Queue: 4 jobs
Job 1
Amino acid sequence: MPDRAPAQCSLAGLKLGHYRIVEKIGAGGGGEVYRAHDEHLDREVAIKILPPGTLPDQVARKRFRKEALSLSKLDHPNIATIHDFDSEGTTDFLVMEYIAGETLSEKLSGTLPEKEIAELGVQMAEALAAAHAVGVTHCDLKPDNIRLTTEGRLKILDFGLARMTRVIADTTTESTAVTHGVAGTLPYMAPEQLRGEDVDARTDIYGAGMVLYEIATGRRPFQSDVSATLVDQILHAPPPPPGRFRTDLSTRLEEIIFKCLEKDPEDRYESARQLRVDLGRVLSPHVTPEAAVRPRRRSSRWKFYAAAGFLVLLAALTWWSLPGRKAVPAAVQTSVAVLPFQNLGSDKESDYLRLALPDEVATLLSYAPDLIIRPFTATQMYATGPIEPQRAGRELRVAKIVTGHFAREGPRIRVTLEAIDAGSNRLLWHDTLTFQSDDHVNLEDQMVTRVRQGLVLALARSALSTPPATHPRNEEAYELYLRSIAIPHDGNDNKQGIAMLERSIGLDTAYAPAWAEAGQRYLYDSQYSDGGPPARRRAQVATERALSLDPNLLAAARLMIALRTEAGELDDAYNLAEQLVEKRPESGEAHFGLSYVLRYAGRLEEAGRECDTAMRLDPANAQFRSCAITFELLRRDDRARECARLDAGSNFSSWQTVFVLLAERKIQEAMPILTGLRNNYVQAGLILAYLHHDSPEQIRRLSERSEQINVNLADPEQAYVDARVQSFCQQPGAALRQLRRAVEKNYCSYPGLETDPLLENVRKTPEFQEVRQSAAACSKKFAAAHGLQ
């Protein structure tokens, strides 16, 4: 490298150490800025080459390196990270995070909407608060030092650089102290900087006020081209009111800007956190136009509209208070899908985090009362490649998408979380956290904090109703839990997940999500593998333990309702479902849980209404596919098809479509679907054998096999389903035995017995009438116990 100031020559293609210069991207009093490629770590960086003479000797360089090291520890999503400081010959350069996008000054071709001003101000204040908390001030805030990423995230550049150069210069020679003693850019300098007084966090508050003023009005408050006059204005003249230049600014935002620009630091905000709180209030939906915006002439009709609104509200409250009416919020909740994260690094050992991290985020968000969270099982289809948020939003029918990525950086893993508006593809929120790769407990602590304090507010402007009651306490246990989440729930994979969770629970017996995940896997093992009744009992124990540790864990509450229902404990299941609906009336999953109990209890009309409510609140939740059974038993076949399509492409969806077609006598349409299912359902093979007029012996063998499989299942609804198949296939003995088993285990859906077309072959037998009477008695007993008409 030539031993001269590099700003005097073209540097493209040349190297500074292991950094290869690509192109010049900026310049200013702080030095030339270049985009470069870090050949050691294979990444893009920004290099700021300091002006010649900034660091006149090795003492200054050593001190500057120490200051740079201190600044490199600033880790905040709104602060551009400093990676390195080095020298090549007499050329001193600082290596920083490269940020694609535009500076705030480039964006200021016109003024910005107030909401966007406040949002940018909040990000700026959060960055300042983080830096001030570790004793670092910027001292040169201006639009040129603030960059907006291509995703819309604000990043403050050159953090602490102005003060660093001043401090370094002050420790060299007397002449440079005079030259560099005042750090900053004149039009944006605070009065105390001009007076040569000590600066602190309140100096940055002034700088933030200058930035807010300029993005609100499109101009600086002090405009003189004469330096002496400009200094006088900064020291003595009040800034013109921003409202003079645009009348649509709220008085609240104007007051915030004035408070930042007070001449005396004592009169400004004491901290950036206070500034962030006030800016957050500008964004608050609870601020009325009358309170927030300067007065305007209002129409005399406002009284009429106010009175009409009051009457509508009164009517709604009256309707909600009618006996037996559950209060379901009229407002549509915010629907959110958390997509699998991307592993941007080469470390495949961390791949399990692609599913584990978003599953954790989805669980945390489920505690927010006005968010509808798609079950993470419904979003795992996007785990195979790059994700286009708008497409995922359309397919999942959600308003907001949460996604993220992570990469291992030496011993640490950096995780980035993002919230995106699915309609506009606009970035709503962005945050980054880092943790040691062997410290997952710290990761969970950070996730809880970031979700509670940032993500939930970005999605719904509300707080978590109740935070998680338990937190991991053992590193190995928590890592096992995270790794188990990424394992499929089928066959031997599910058993591997169970083994991991059993080890996790043995190491940390008090972490509720691990118990809930174990309960779900035990249930799958009992239903779809060879776990049988012992696995179901373990599912019950694990779920009870999860709820004892965290009664508000939605996944565990939902699972417990299903377990109690399928065990025939309808009274307990109904009480749990009612309590969950009372606690979470906005939750589609809560209403679905209630519909599930009501279906087993033979209350099909009520079950249908709860299914309708669940799908109104959460219209794309694939778990609600089971409502297809309810609507089919009600002979609402079109609605049954809609519910089955919630999980389109699944065996369940195809199987339910078969039942609807058979009930409608559309045999030819059902045949190809049955052919595709015969390897997964013995009953599909039985139906095909019957329709193909196979030998009576073949049909009998398939009938016996189907009956035996379902005898070993704990869920009585499976016995009822098998009874329908057996009846359709002219196997009345097996059909009646299965119906009796179903009712004896408290599957009391007698209205279905009355109307189900597939039961026509057994409906006129005396045995059927006995079963029907037992089912009716079971349903009436349930209704009486719970005051149902």
Job 2
Amino acid sequence: MIGLIWIILLPMLAAMVAPLWPKRWRNAPGWWATAVSASVVALLASFGPSIHKGEPVRFSLPWPAPEFGVQLALGADGWGWGFALVVAGIGTLICLYAVHYLSDKEPRGRFFAYLLLFEGAMLGVVLSSNLLFLVVFWELTSVASFLLIGFWHQQERARYGAYKALLITGIGGLGLLAGVVMLYLAMGTFDLYELIARADEVQAHPWFVPILVLILLGVFTKSAQFPFHFWLPDAMTAPTPVSAYLHSATMVKAGVFLLGRIHPIFRGREEWFWIVTTVGMATMLLGAYAAVRKTDLKALLAYSTISQLGLITMLYGFGTHTAALAATFHIFNHAAFKAGLFLVVGIVDHETGTRDKRRLGGLAKAMPITMVICGACALASAGVPLLNGFLSKELFYTEMVEVGTRGWVWMIWPALAIGGSIFTFVYSMEVFHGVFFGQLRMHDTHQEHAPHKPHDPGWGMLVPAGLLATVCVLVGLWPGVLEGWLLKPAVWAVWQQVFDFHVVIWHGFTTPLILSILTMVAGVVLYLQRHRLGQVQERFAWSFTAHTIYDGALNGLIGSTDWLTNKLQNGRLRQYLWWAAATLVAAMLYAAAPVLGTILPSQFTTISGWETVLLLLLIAAAVGVVWRNGERLSAVITVGSVGLLISGLYLVMSAPDLALTQLLVESVTIILFLFVLWRLPQEAPKSSPRRHRASDAVLSIAFGGLICLLVLGVSASKQLWALPEYFTQTSLPEAGGRNIVNVILVDFRGFDTLGEITVLGIAALGAFALLRLRNGKERDR
């Protein structure tokens, strides 16, 4: 269906228009972006009936390289369609919010152009059914996020965060590309649905483990999983609308989306289980623990996102129906409450001038509507009943209980999961209770960036956050609406099989419910003791962190490249030529090594007397060039004699046209040399040190010897002797020429000759420009 391509093209084309609005219409780019995102939502909604019938929407565009399996193939099944709705829906709310959030001094056209590009790239990721094009859109999300994170590029922290995000996710993207290419080489296709259908073949292939590791490298870096989690907090230098979008529906969610997409291909193998679940659990615990430590609310939410993504990753690693349901459901729930929390933090920062939780408190009376919105989103994050986060947390605990029944060793999983969930409750209360309740600290919050008493903002900032909070409440109270409309098609697409399930509020007094109650009770106790918890964390805090490793590795890389550059590119022409020749020798030797013993011809051509004389004179002239001892004029004459002797050799071997060409070229070259020598001293500088001359001699002998062997090998090739016969038979009937050499140059090697003529033309233009520049300077003098 051709409408599918417009879902991606609309935001990308609109991104080109966003900067073109007149500056006097300062809100026009924002309204334009909002309207385009809403149009994408409407277009996606039109595919709903087909998706609910179990009929995925497909679109493919032939590409000029069909033999490589490359084609622009898009597919909207329940998983891709549902995720695209989240991307476009939250994108609409973010654009509306940003219209009222950004100050008049900001370059709004550029901001919304980047935001639309970001949205289009993410839509390309979730709708691509060709893995190669998925990788292209995957990298485009990294580029767009780089532009958005570094939007305030005048700030050093913004540039640092943008570079870090691009570098880490870019390395992961290279791993993903390598894994996808290996998968293609193993299975012969980039088509995602075909690979899903052939999952047994993929798992049985000898390359299964390296393919899995490389693809997971891309997933883990993009979704900020341990040990690649450290780039995400530094991305908080972006404007708050960007942070909300990046954490809820784009960029970091691309990783867990791909995890769900490849889930039916890789699940069931022990490697999948241990790698994915271990990394997910470590990320969940690390993120939740670190979030409690943070005093900046955006940093707190950043680490909370890391934790939640770890939870989702771990669930997909278990590879069961319940785990897949819980992970997919929690992705949608997390998108709603996390975007809402970021928008609330943006409002608080906008009204008070600070995001430091130590300087905030008691804002409930001054900002009651914002407090209600924050309460719905924060309590959903904490897993409080009657909100959407509680339902997916229940499914999470259901899976943990199931894992715990496998034996005593497996009890570590639910124990760690409960610990991470307790910290999740604590940091959620930090955002809600810590900011809006307690003592009002007006003297701390009233900063220069907020020259007024804090109050609820206008509708433009409240409506997007309020709608997200409403989703948290409605899904928590009536989960059946989301279940039938969005959740079931998505889960069935992830599992690649229809199975029955129902998400309900009340299951009775079950073990998961008891664990939820214990989590909340322990969370309340720990939150009341948060000051002591902070003291304990500070006491055991490490100064050596992932940021230290990153900075050290980056500085080491830059230092080593500086050293290498200074060694190789030091301005000395001799060294450039030496390294170029040495590299060429090494490459040719590597390529020819397997056949060096078989390239000598079985018999050599007999040499006539004149040829013998010319060859001996050639050798003597070549040796004479080396022993000129700095006498430039005699060295040039000796080099010229080498060329003239080669012309004589061509003439003896019945090639008068080549002899004439060589004679003309050699004559012109000698004349040019003489012109140059007229400007130079007659004596050359002192020769190079002995060690340099020794290395030059070794390289020259190696280069000449290898070329000699390769020429002999080509001469011995049986295929070579078929060429003269072919050119003799086809020159006249096919090219209309009796001069075979001319036909080869003009017809058989026409493009090659055209390239040579082009090079000569460019060189002539360059020489002409230099001469004019020289003449102009002389006239000025």
Job 3
Amino acid sequence: MKTQRLIHTLFALTILCFAQTSIAQVVINEYSCSNFNTIADNYGEFEDWVELYNPTGSDVDLTGWHLSDKSANPTKWPIPSGIVPAGGYLMVYCSRRDEVSGGNLHPRFKLTQTRGENFILADAGGVVVDQVTLVPAQSDHSRGRNTDGDANWGVFTTPTPGAANTGALQEFATKPVFDQPAGKYNGSVTINITSPDPNVTIYYTTDGTTPTNASTVASGPININTTTVIRARAISSDNTIPDSFIETNTYFIDETHTVRVLSIAGDNVDNLLNGGGGGSDIDGSFEVFDVDFTLIDEATGDYNKHGNDSWAYDQRGFDYITRDQYGYNYAIQNKMFRGKDREEFQRLIVKAAANDNYPFENGAHIRDSYLHSLSQVGDLKMDERTFEPCVLYLNGEYWGLYDYREKVDDSDFTDHYYDQDELFADSPNNIQFLKTWGGTWSEYGGAQAQADWDAFKNWVLSNDMTVQANYDLVKAQYNVGSLVDYVVLNSYAVCMDWLNWNTAWWRGLDPNGDKKKWRYVLWDMDASFGHYINYTGIPDESPNADPCNPELLPDPGGQGHVPILNKLMTNDEFYQYYVSRYIDLSNTVFKCDFMLNHLDSLITIITPEMPRQIARWGGDMATWQANVQQLRDFITDRCNAMNQGMIDCYSLTGPYQLIFDVAPVNSGTIEVNSVELDAFPWTGTYFGGIDIILDANENPGYIFQHWEMLNHTPTPSETVEDVRINISNHDQIIAHFCDETGVCFDGLFIPTAFSPNGDGINDVLNVLAGKDIVELEFAIYDRWGQLVFETKDPLKGWDGTFAGQDLNSGVFAYQVHAVFIDEEEIKKGGNITLMR
């Protein structure tokens, strides 16, 4: 937050700037970045505005002049046309529309008053004619010259755009100063609230409401012995000095938390969240504290209803929007999410687990956050609402366990990550963002977004996707990988609330940005894993639901997602990718151990906070823990059912175990369909009946040589990096690389598996060396530590027998000690898989 001293300094600099400016020219006369609902432009929008004034006796044509918000780029926006009449005004609305309309200038930028930005007027040659450093004002106020063209500036609580400046007031009263910072205190804390101005009276409240001259006067020490939010405002005895900005501090007494803490306060915030009705754009303060109660940042903004079914609960979620117009901050500025480098957030969602809430829906209090997080750690091709667990205090009262979320359907999000920014709301812009929740609407892009999507959908459904050229055209406009990941995740989680609800997809139109193809967004995922209501009408809500069930849905939502999927399934390339992506994800992010471990890691974070949540809202720990176990059991059953489901849906065979490796160590990586492997040996479960696409990628200093497989032959050949196999058995697959000198491996290489089945292929396990061995000790042990094979002969290998009998398939340990002709000595050990 900016201090009052900074505001006064900037204001003084602004006055100095204008004291040096000749008024015998067009000047910046008045501006407002606090325009909530007082001054509408010619489109009926309440934009930031600037008034230009011509003090001369002749019209001034500004055509070819420039406006800018950047000192380093005073010619940022050339003025297409515009005349400031003699002794008159010209209005500038910073709407980003990049036009002149209704007699107003609409430059291609907005203004942010709490960033200390500038507004600059430059002539046709780029010479700065006038400029002002923006100083924060309170809601619906403006700053301007005391009278038209005057060198001195004041505050207007009643702005005068397009008219003579009258009624100027002095600078806002100095914001009160607390002698103790917000945060945690043991037992109690005593604070003093003061002001350097002796002519003000400081009023404060302890219930989160806005202080007025009817509130308590801060006339001495204030003792706080229970968690309290204090809001204070200075009011001057001079009626030409407007009331100060409000200072808000939350003092936590004897509180302990293991997650971050949010404290919100305001006149009607309690009404919003405490059963007093809905409402929107309810203003209030927002403080966020780290686990140790260190203040991370604070702001003032608007609170709105978030959720539908969950809004019926006493513990409600909400949207929060930091508003620069209030003059406190333009965003929450800090790293708000672990693993994310983003440091500015205008909008956040604050959720109480929605329809997975405990105790209100007898849920696990984690489903939605878990699936978004799972998608992120698996790097699925979608945009997710990043989450961070927190607890909430409402006007100083503990309000329960929540999590705050990144808001994806926001131009700040698309701009930060993909350089795709909103231009303006009601004309074609850089984002087309569609959302289906019962009905479908355009969040960005207007009617054109829906028209463009409909045209694309209809083209796909009316053209033959077995023609590769048609499919290539689809891929040029549509992220088919995002469609696949979106369907597979919802299918795997047995989501019952998607397509006709909670579906969003978008694309960027800025050619210099990223994500220019239609792609999908995760929305609410709480009706998953057998929980809540089957709004979509999926045919099977159980863990045994077939993975192909989404393909059987008619067209929930009416936007063509399932018909497009089914049409693309007629293309061989897409079909292979779709089925293989299911298999790849089942071997990685949807592998049972991975899913359960990730769930447990999130449950570990919130478990210490659940007793307080339960004490506040009801229920008991045993029931919540049983709900979590029910979720774990569903995930386990789902994992176990998927192999048979894949076989039934797509006529596959198996499953078979594949072990992947590279030789020598660290010489390269292997891509298996959509997954790149870089840690070896790596084991996965795969199927016959569908091609597996392999690609060997050499690390620096190496060149691919050949594939080695025990039971299969790759197509087109084992010497090609990019191959296919269609398996019918277990196998070990090794990508061999040579170094740049032509040596294919140096030292020792022990294969990680072999198959002594008498087919003449990989029947014997040998020690392989890149140079002559002069001494060798090679021993193999079973799982109980019994020696089953040993040799000192570099040419003698193991045939998988012990005492003349074939050993069963299994994992065996080895130890090897070798001395080479150049006197290099190597000792190593590891595991070998015997495959019958």
Job 4
Amino acid sequence: MDNSFAFQALSQPWWVALVVCAVIAAGVCVVMLMRYERRLVPRNVGATLLTIRGAILVLLLLVCLQPVLSWTISRSQKGRFVVAIDVSQSMLTQDEHGSVGEKLRWARALGMIGNAEINARLDRWIAADREGREFEWVTPDEEPDPERRAELAAIRQEHVAEVVTAMDGISRREMLETLLTKTARPLLDGLRDVVDVDLILFAGEAESVAPEVVVASLAEPSSGLLTQSSDLSSALKRSAADSEGSPLLGVILMTDGRDNSVNDPLAQATRLGLTGIPVYPMQFGSERRPKDLSIASLDYPQTAFKDDKILLRASVNLSGYENQPIDVELLRAGQPPESRRVVAIGSTGTVDFQLDASEVGRKEYILRVPPQEGETRPDNNEKSFAMTVVDDTVRVLLVEGEARWEFRFIDNAFTRDERVDIEKVVFDQPYLGILDETFFPRRLNLPADPADLEHSPFATPDVVILGDISPQQMSGDAFKLIDRFVAESGGTLVIVAGKRSMPLAWRSPELEQLLPVRNLVPVNAAGESGRKAPTERGFHLRLTPEGEGESFLQFDPDPVANRQIWQHLPGFTWGLVGEAKPGATPLAYAFGPDDIPSLNDERAGAVIVHQYYGFGQVLWIGVDSTWRWRHRAGDKYHHRFWGQLGRWAARNKSSAGNEFVRFGPLRTDIAYGEDAVISARWTQPYLRQFPQLSSKAEIYRLGNDDERELFTTIDLTASPQRPLFHEGRAVSLPAGRYRVKLVVQGADPRVSGLEAPLYVQERTTLELSDLSANHELLAQIANSSKGELFYPDQVDQMLKKITDPLRTTSFREEVELWNHWSMMVALFGLLFVEWVLRKLNGLP
């Protein structure tokens, strides 16, 4: 503690001089008064009065000089590190295919080889292995005699061979467990000597674990961790989320670097780095790809229309089998297997199958690669998947102000789709009078009654797409009908931004309610940005995590590949960017090449936004040029986007329900480990009639003969943001077929009994499609967070990074003595005593 005492007034000499003069003058007056009072009172009383009055003058002098007492307090607090441990299935790999140098690193980490005398020699061999050079087993400096050098080299080579062979039976997870708890100096003990330690296990999800049960948890991870996948972001988010206890100084990420989630671990690592929390990845596993065959990804529609031409495109990893003929089999119950030969491109290959869509119903398949000799892991050679065939057509109403480029390409995409029935209205179009009528209809035949939805153009469509329409072209009554089309009949409204009118020129309360965005601001890519190449021009769209899960925004089944496609799509030179309303979900947001993503950007800079509205839904698209996606790609992305959007919209209108409620899972097909979100969307009049309504969802699991067994029951509760929605979540449903039944209490019993299907598939991930350690990703995570990448044999070097974990917090406190209550008490106390003495002795 550092104390100091100072007079603030000394910084103003004129004030000090004035105060001193005043006190001297007051002292002279006190002395003169004392000489007068001596004739009236005894000497001891006069001396006491003089002392008191002198003390009063001293206090007044101190008050005027403004004394301040200050001190500095320093507090040291022990820091905290989070150790995040990967328990995904890839960590069970035994890296027999690893190089000699890699195995030497692992053996040294486990204490099987190495000491202070030979570590430099091991480093030399490891470096030679990484650089592809021959090992120099014995240097001339160690042994000048060639014969003796050859004998010593043979001994060392034999010893290394024994160590390498011993490493072949150790999995990555076993190595990690030994490093944590069983070496001569376990990592956990070394960390606890200097910091507090929190442990997190992660795979597809993350959860905290107590140190005393970490070994048991590593041996048998809980099912909630979803070990079939790897999500590095889940570990980093969980590390940052726990703010209790001592300050977080860093994260140690013990993993092989495999990540097959839809999240971006680099963005999360960057956020940690900006808050002063470095990430120290520790890499386990070989960077070499093993000799292995695996199904990497499947590209197929989950829902298709009857008689559609459905193509399954599978990507197959051929590591170690690049020059061999490999056949892939498609299996379906009751039918003979189909076989196709993989078309190899390097270490990957593709194979296509035509899926049968001639019959309505659910089709379940298995795609497998027969195991080959020498495979590292044959348990990743097959994937199951399912497809639902429905007999339906998407009905689209496309309404535009004029035939702008966006209208032409959307019209072309839907017109060429055999499963889409499209009607078009263009209000403003050239007409020479040669034909009896314009090429497109140019008016909406609205009924006289704005509440008559049945006889309006909005009675039959599944989806209505509104373009750049002005208030002069379409009346406000049309939006009243559109409001009913969405809220009551469960339709989908897509609003595409327009430069002229939509929606900034409108003052319609119905449109204002329907729009899922607010505070719209035009964005123009002017100047040099607008003159760049299409892929570099303007701003781009980046999907939010919710957007990456939407089917109509998926251009590739692999989340990583889909994210890369969106990043490299041509940019936009104009758009309307807005803030997503409460209850709305941003699916894509504007993103510049130099921007750092944040959660605020997702909502404040939203471009594609989804919102449920009554029984239906509204989609806002804040750009007017999705046709730019055709640059050097033709119809590949543009037609796929609008085709998928149409089918996505049609499924919403065909969900189970009646005039009071729409009921069912938000997604009928989910992967194991995903939450099944069950929703009941009620009409407002019905909820007003039955304010005490409560609802549940009974989930029945179906057997082979469609026998049903009640699996679980979940409560459906309303949220303050969306009171018409009652939602619940079923967590960790096993793979299989289900029926979800609505049960209602406190209302008309006729709404009970609605049922909807739910299918839970085995999780299709890339967890076992590539078993090599992802060194590049781990290095990027370390750099993004201002951390450092380590190997298992570098524990001591890692611990040196944590040599000063104490966080010292210093703060300064001060007391203004001249303004303190004690000074006032002392001053007025002396004045009171002086007054009492005077009165007791008869003085005035």
